[in-house]
Design a protein that fits this description.
The protein is mostly helical. It has helices spanning about 1-20, 25-30, 35-50, 70-80, 90-95. About 60% of the residues lie in helices and about 0% in strands.
Amino acid sequence: MENFNQNVIKHKTGRLNLAAELGNISKACKIMGFSGDTFYRYQTARDAGGVEALFEVTRRKPNLKNRVEEITEAAVTAFAVDFPAYGQVRASNKLRKAGVFICSSSDLI
């Protein structure tokens, strides 16, 4: 992921540098094939937060309704690491005996 972010930053700063070299933002946008709005968004982000502000930022908000409790998640993760060969049904049954209630695929039928 770090390599991806470095490539993205290199392209974005390259666009900003080309505009500075040409001295014409419109011409730089035409050469690079992107809109002036995109250029100004990149420029504003760089001016406000430096090069780090150009990282790809997801605009999706996490849907916390789909999350289980942290205790349950930790128990399932620990169990999966300790017993990687167990299937969904067996893991669900073993965790249920330990007091952690999760749904196995057979419970849905």
